[in-house]
Amino acid sequence: MNLVHLLFIFYSFINHKGETLNLKTLARRSTIVGTIAGLLLADILIFTAQAAPRTVVLTQPTPLTGLNSSVTEMNLATNSEVMYPTGFGFYYANDAKKLVPNTKFGTWKSKKDSTGFRVSYTVKPNQTWNDGTPIDAVDLLLSHVVSSEKWSIDAGLGDPSAGVTAFDSLGYGGTYTKRIKSTVLSDNNMTLTLVYDKAFADWDQYAPGPFPVHALSLLADGKTTLGTDAASKAAKAKFLDDYLTKDTARFKAMGKIWSTSYNITTVNASTNPLLLVSNGGFKLQSCIDQISCTLVIDPVTNGMSGPETTEIDKIVYRFDIADTSAPQALANKEIDLYGGQVTADGLTQLKAIKNITLDAGPQTTYEQLALRTAGPNDVGDYKGPFAGETKRARELRRAFLLAVPREDMIQKIILPTDVSAVVLNSRVVMPSDGAAYKSYILNNGVKQYFGASYTARMAEATSLMNKLVPNWKSKPVVVNLLHRNNARRTAQCQLYAASWAKVGFTVACGGRADWSSQTSNLEYDAGLFAWGAGLPVQVGDCGQTESESPNSTWGWINPAIDKNCSVLKGDPLREASRNRYWQAIEKEQSKNAYTIPLFQWPGVTAIATTLKGVKPSPITPNLVWNYWEWSN
Amino acid sequence: MRTFKKKTSTLQSAEIDSAENAIANREVQGLTQRQIVIRRFLNHRAAVTSLIILTTLVLFVFTGSGFHVGPWQIPGWWKHNIDTLSDLIVCSEGRLGCPTLSVVPKWLGGDGIRLGEHPLGQDDIGHDYLAMVLRGAQRSLMVTFIIGTVAGIIGTVVGAIAGFFAGRIDNVLMRFVDFLITIPSIIIGSVIGYHFGNLGALFLAFYLGLFAWTGLSRLVRGEFLSLREREFVDAARVAGASNNRIIFKHILPNAVGVIVVSVTLLMSGAILLETALSYLGFGVIPPDVSLGLLISTYQDAFTTRPYLFWWPGITIITIALSINFIGDGLRDAFDPRQRRKVTLKERRVKLFNRLMRKSQNV
Amino acid sequence: MLAFIGRRIGTLFVILFGSSFILYNLTAISGDPREQYKFATDEKSQSALRALVRQLDLETPPPLRYFKWLEGVLGVFYGKLNFGVTRDNEDVISRLSAAIPTTLKLVTAATLTAIFLGIALGMVTAIRQYSRFDYVVTFFSFLMFSLPIFWVAVLLKQFLAIEFNDFLEVGYIDIGWRILIAAFTAVFWAGVIGGSKNRIAKVALSAFILTFGILTAIVALKWFYDPGLGPIVVFILSVGIAFAVTAISMGLDNRPALKSSLSIALITLILYYPLQYVFDKYSSWLLILALAVLTISTATLISVLFAKIDRGAVIRTSVITSIGCGLVVILDRLLSTWSEYLTLDGVNGRPIPTIGQMNPLLTTDDFWLVQLDTVVHLILPTVALTLISFAGYIRFTRGTMLEVLNQDYIRTARAKGLSERVVVVRHAFRNTMIPITTIIVVDISGVIGGAIITERVFGWSGMGTLFNKAISGYDLNLLMGVFAVTATLAVLANLVADLLYAALDPRIRVGNRL
After folding, report:
1. pTM of this prediction exceeds 0.90
2. CA nearest neighbour of C475 among C2, C24, C10
3. What contacts C192, CB < 8 A, 6 or more positions away?
């Protein structure tokens, strides 16, 4: 419109005697000027919209901070999400939170004998990195270097448990470093055998990931361009030699590169290509700091070490897009794929957009209500209403939990934000796990103790209260509830409080910003909070439920739970028996009315209708895990 | 109404000028300063309308949802309050909690004129939205006035002292202002929120007021620095007036225009500051409500459940607009040299005269 | 004077030291960066937690840690400035140096527009106090001022971006919309120009017909797909600018000024095609800069040739005209890139984005395409920021101007027969600008701090985003980095404002204050 205004200014100049014109002349003149102006401005060009290219644009809530997501400070979901399509390993995790073997890359088998527990990882022959260097088991060795504390100390790189190490790796300090004894490389360099002292739970999650060690070796030599085939081969041989001789100086140099040089957020033509050597379906083409990363199909490695991508050519990640901006960006066709948490109205808005389809994108995070029975790890002397393991305390807790309007909560707060929300009946297996969840909750006790209808539960709660606190109508039990002070938690608390008030509990809502440091504050009798989880592990949530565990802040002391946990922490179990122990723990929790699961955190995935094959997974990488199945 | 368009009319307009001033002077002859200000203010139609609207709004929200006076709770006339939940009303297409207010009469095809159970609808869990808007408006008004008062007083006093006494006092005060400017008030808010939990909206308003006066004080200081050099101040000093008298009787009335405009901007800015802080999660904390919190919570409801967004939105705009217009009127009223406003009556007379002239020409 | 500035800067350091110390410790106790790992039990989180403690030196008590931080900051004096690292182990300085230009890009256009529009409208409303125009502008500016930015953002995204792009896909403006827009334009111009009823009716009618005609022509000729101006429109606009600038600054009866301004318009026309060639061949910021210098010096030269007396004013007039003409030429060049931009892979016929500061799918290096890309990404945030911020300037300008217009010296100026234009431009405007300048200086220093919410809703990552991130993640080093920039600028701006005030207002006895 500015142009029109400018023209008008001009017009009023040539027409400064306007007062004397009559309307007819004025109208005629304006029409003529208008038409002439229009004609002058115009240059007819038939515009045709192009067909949608084979590109997928998706959003990430935070910007990329580095390319190596195994470095301690770089453990951001975004980093792994962006780098995922650039690499293949022995397995990948699917949307059912199961590890899927990637047989195109290699296979593994385990063997128990007198010397310990051996797992041999064999790399399939005839695979290369995208610079043409062959992939073999030497590329798996770095995984050991950045995970084994013993190796680090032996090689003179420092003691990672004391915080001194050449490789700033996340891998130290875990089960791997505790169990691993040695590594054995086969003669043809295609098989790496990891020797553990004994079998342990979830050992299959510790498969060594491939890393282009020749590139690391060349980088440590100060190279800034890709090596020739011979040079790369020599570099790899040198790495193996250094590994076997534990060359401290060389590994210190490589550690420095590994820990710092990959921490870049800008990638372009001037980026050292050695940093970008990869073996995935896609390769990193460019990254603009804080804004975006672009991956393009890698003609060399696509389909070589994993499933082949055939229908898309480019994946673009856009960073820092607020959840509230996503619906309009989708409507404006700026992005094709968005996953996140939206409000009820955001979801309605998304539903109204024509060119997208919605999918539930549930998160592994789930909400629970926990009651305090004692000070955490027996710290302090808790004297609140729910204290102790007596029958009375248990029944009072039970009355409190029975009165939680779980269905109403789903109906009013969660369902409007999640297309597939249901009442959560487990803390270990989630509704998004499908059939596994349905069979699991048959025996985990939550339904058994809290599965009745709301009316029936309220009736039971009332009769319990009549028995325990006969004068509850005049003198209700005061309960201090801890929760974070955001809008949803407050609404949730208010909804519950209204129901609790009906059975004689007075609960004031109004959370705290520092709720997590208040969990050990004995003023609070109950807490409303969420737990998150990644790939399922055998110990389940023993970390939070076992007595005396550092994360058990609600003071539950229960020998039955502890017994089950000690089994789970031991030798690997089959899935069926692992489930049995988990169920036993949950049953015990429900029976003693310690806690109740409420709902799985809502999430939604919006997918442009042209984009097919997206199956959001609840764990990282959650949108791109099956990128090879996409088409746009 | 005069326009400065043609050079030839300059002389004429200057004449009108003095003529108008003469009328104005005659009109205010024998009146005290206060009477003049009040009279001038009452002549400012937009300001008076705004004052009426704002007063009505204040009365409406305070009587509507009730308020605390010390330990006593004065109940409001509206049947719902923000602490109780009622069942969600089911309306068309399975939607829940939509407004029952209807203003289209039946004979026009509407639902008839009625308030209904929840005139402005309900939120997700069944709070009555009118009650929330009433309480929110109450909170926002308090926040606005507290920030305005605290910042207005501190800013004016500090600016006046610094500007009038200049020299070392000015230097010390202004460096303190510099110091305050560098500290983001959000940080103070989050420190307080983290360590003391939620201290409530009024406390929030108070500490925001403690940080919001810096710009005003600089402005007032500038004004004072310039006014203190003027002849009438010298005259007053020669006549033996005390500093107090010079500040309050001579300089302040001359600076009041600037002060009033910036205080009103500050106040309408305060309501937006509260909104912005609520949006970022540092403002009023639920279960307490403020208009800012309501519209930032329901910013997505813009198209989907517009009533959740528009009512608090419109209230914010009404408050901000009326405060600004009142400020406008006050500014004009306080300006000692301000030309009197041409009233409607005089305009009619003028028009009549012109028509008469025209008919004579014919 | 120098001693005064020196002393002030000395005090500045003391202030910055004090406030940074307080802020550092306050922030350190306001939250724990370890919060997110509080309950994590998995191995990775445990080692990430250990790394975080080591990297942010969380074992050291905050007051001591402050001095370690200060040591790094004081490194600025020997070339080793170090603000530490963020919790993501990124160098704070690199974050800041990426964020500052982004924020500058975001707020510069909006701030300039707001100041320009605000002062212009403020003056007009003051001159025509209590006119209908005054009321309308006052009302709308207050209205815009009262709107929260995320509200404005949602509306703008819907109408200026999504609907406009949808319109481009169809290429047709509904007749109802055309009438509505034309009617709006008519009301606007009728309000601005004012006068007798007859005159108002004429103005409104001609504005209506003109707008409607142009809109129809645009629709009929699909101007939106290739919207260049062409040499003739550029010339017409240049002449318009020449007239307007001269009329306001010198009066149209000042022949030398008019002549030199018009010659500039003529030169613009003559150089139109050569310039297109240069633009296509050697476009870069350096070229634009060189051309700007060339334009201004040509304008100066021309006015020296034409003007015998009052040279300074004529030079000023022609320079302003030449800048205007230059902007029109650049606008024309940008517009002629439009059709190419529309067909780009990542744009795909939907040019106005709702989010982001650049199109990540843009693979070209072409100067004009990149600039146009920046411009389209700036449109929404600029409009939003301008709308909500110009009310303040209008009100201050109006208030100050009214005060000035009622002063005796204005009366004297009028009485001695000066034209109204001279009274307003030479006498009133100058004195109005004194307090406004100081406000502007302080405001500009403030905008570097970033527009937190604007950046968030439009998906830009500048200083506001950093600040927000720092606060929500308890990222102390990052927060202090942002603080160092904004606080230094704020106190410096106050210093500059004080100096300006003393320099501009002769009534203030400088010596007295120093």
Report:
1. no
2. C24
3. C124, C133
Separation between Cα atoms, residue C246 and residue C233, nearest integer Å? 20
Do the domain assignments include residue C190? no
Q: At residue B158, does pLDDT exceed 60?
A: yes
Which of C46, C210, C355 comes nearest A329 by C-beta? C355
- Of B121, B138, B169, the residue at which a domain comes to its end is B121
Based on the domain organization, do B94 and B230 belong to the same domain? no
Are the beta carbons of B291 and C421 closer than 8 angstroms?
Answer: no
Vertex A454, ends A449 and A456: CA angle to 5°? 70
Is the model's pLDDT at A8 over the cut of 60? no
pLDDT, position A124: 93
Domain that holds residue C266: 105-129+137-146+233-446
Q: How many CB pairs under 8 A join A and C?
A: 270
* pLDDT score at C41: 65
Residue B10: list chain C partners with CB under 8 A. 414, 417-420
Give me the pLDDT at residue A36, please: 55
- Per CB-CB distance under 8 Å, the chain A contacts of B201 are none
Q: pLDDT by residue (tens digit) across C160-198?
A: 888 888 888 877 777 888 889 999 888 878 776 667 788
Domain count along chain C? 2
CA-closest candidate to residue A594, choices A558, A567, A559: A558
Shared-domain flag, residues C305 and C372: yes
User: Residue B259 pLDDT more than 80?
Assistant: yes
Q: Convert the pLDDT of each residue in A122-159 to its tens digit.
A: 999 999 999 999 999 999 999 999 999 999 999 999 88
A390: number of Cβ within 10 Å? 10
The per-residue pLDDT for B10 is 40
Alpha carbons within 13 A on the beta-carbon side of C81:
10
CA distance B289 to B305: 19
**Among C150, C399, C471, whose Cβ lies nearest the Cβ of B257?**
C399
- Which comes out higher in pLDDT, residue B340 or C426? C426
Residue B297 with chain A: CB contacts under 8 Å: 487
On the question of pLDDT at A14 being above 50, the answer is no
Task: Say what the pLDDT of residue C145 is.
Answer: 79
Q: Which residue of B has its CA nearest to A348?
A: B304
The answer, for A65 touching chain C at a CB cutoff of 8 Å, is yes
Using DSSP, state whether C85 is helix, strand or coil. strand
Which residues of chain A are within 8 Å of residue B198 when distances are taken between CB atoms?
Answer: 485, 510, 512
Q: Is B81 on the interface with A (CB under 8 A)?
A: no
Beta bridge partners of A339: A605
Which chain B residue shows the shortest CA-CA distance from A517?
Answer: B194
Q: How far is A533 from chain B (nearest CA, A)?
A: 26
Q: How high does pLDDT run on average in chain C?
A: 84
Distances (CA, A) of A496 to A368, A409, A466, B285: 13, 8, 20, 19
Q: Which residues of B touch C151 (CB under 8 A)?
A: 295, 299, 302, 313
Average pLDDT over all residues of chain B? 78
Q: Is the Cβ of B197 closer than 8 Å to some Cβ of chain A?
A: yes
- Residues contacting C226, CB < 8 A, separation 6+: A43, A44, A45, A47, C336, C338, C339
Examine the pLDDT at A460 and tell me if it is beyond 90. yes
Query: CATH: 3.60.150.10, 3.10.105.10, 3.40.50.300, 3.30.390.10. Which one for A363-602?
Result: 3.10.105.10
- Contact residues, chain C, for B223 at CB < 8 Å: 435
- Is residue B100 located within the same domain as residue B164? no
Nearest CB to C350: which of A66, A332, A531?
A: A332
Of A324, A327, A509, the CB nearest to B287: A509
| Segment among A151-165, A309-323, B30-44, C263-277 with least mean pLDDT | B30-44
Count contacts between B and C (CB, < 8 Å). 188
